[in-house]
Amino acid sequence: MTDDSLSSALALPTIDGAAAPLRSRLPLAAVDRAAWEALAADRIEGNGLFEPGFALPAGELAGGSSALLAYGPNQRRLLGLLPVISAWRALKLPLKMLVATEGYTVLSTPLLDRADPVAAAEGLIEAARQAGAAVLMLPFMAIEGPAATALREAMARRGVTGTIDNSRQRAALDASGDAEAYLRGGLGAKKLKELRRLANRMADEGAVQFAEAREPGAIAAALERFLKLEASGWKGRRGTGLGQDAADARFIRAAAAGLATRGQFSVLELTLDEKLVAAGLVIRQGDHAIFFKIAYDEAYSRYSPGVQLTVELTRRLCADPAIRFADSIAVEGHPMIDHVWRERLAIGDLYIPTGRGGVAASAIIGLAIARRRLRARAKSLYHAIRSSREKRT
Questions:
Q1: Which residue ranges make up each domain of the chain?
Q2: Measured in whole angstroms, how far is the alpha carbon of residue 182 from the centre of its chain?
Q3: Dihedral angle at the C-alpha atoms of 104, 26, 140, 362, nearest 10 degrees?
Q4: Which of 70, 110, 277, 298: disulfide with 82, CB 3.0–4.6 Å?
Q5: Helix (H, G, I), strand (E, B) or coil at 193
Q6: CATH 3.40.50.720 fits 3-168+345-392, yes or no
Q7: pLDDT for 27-68, tens place per residue?
Q8: CA atoms of 308 and 223, how far apart (whole Å)
Q9: How far apart are the C-alpha atoms of 57 and 59, rounded to whole Å?
Q10: What CATH homologous superfamily does 176-323 map to?
């Protein structure tokens, strides 16, 4: 089943009454950039991964994504946007389901208009139905908050009920308060004192500095240093570093450049005598931030450079009046960030019937959930075997 087999066009009138081929689903690259940026700037809930600067190169990495679109009553304004691919491409299942994803999606909360989020949510569900899908799946959906509330109300209006599977929680930061009080409350005075001691020990070896690249030129140079650092560690040994695959490297360079032009990307670096010891990539959208990636030099692990960088980032985010909330996008129970950032973001896989065949929708959801659980068990077994082999070598 191809993506084209799940597409349709809606003939909608323009403001002067003439017919215009506004579509409910378009290739990402064909979406009006100005309308997309305006929606991203005035959405009810943030998701920097669906900014055009990130989503366009990520979609290319995924082999080409499209977007479900929702418009206002007069068709002048874009109310909702959600990148999607077919269930065949996402899950290798020949199902009439669209999946909200593109390359590197770890948060699929849709962009919904702040003024009318329910209409935006209902428009996206209808767009999926018009495209031939019986189910719209949102993996990594924030299942609490204004966007989730709007989706639930939109489903109620349509007389359908969603299904949430694979619920979990990941570390997040409430950046609205004082950083030092926040860190003491989470790490405790004893742990903070130990981190200061380690920082002082590192300073005995040379000049320790934090620097944040925020301008496009500085970001480009800092990103290259990050990619080199990441490749030098365990991700490099496993071949999973961003810079080790040509397509991944093109994606992150394009995403960083695209976001940097709007002040939405930064690279925080920790150096020792100008040698890079740790670095992190941060994405911003309005009052939300995403701690996208972190890497550190394992030769300096005795100083906990990754924790040092995360603590410094916490201070900087709390000091930034524009930032209210930050998502770690880390796995549930992460051994490092869970001890630094105390809030938890509830996410799950949300399945929404579009109203195109209730029995068929139920069967599709059941098959998709069964496949996810089977794959999770296989992945867990694979990592257990790999870990056992690495311990023996």
A1: 3-168+345-392, 176-323
A2: 24
A3: -140
A4: 110
A5: helix
A6: no
A7: 999 999 999 999 999 999 999 999 999 999 999 988 888 999
A8: 19
A9: 5
A10: Gcn5-related N-acetyltransferase (GNAT) (3.40.630.30)
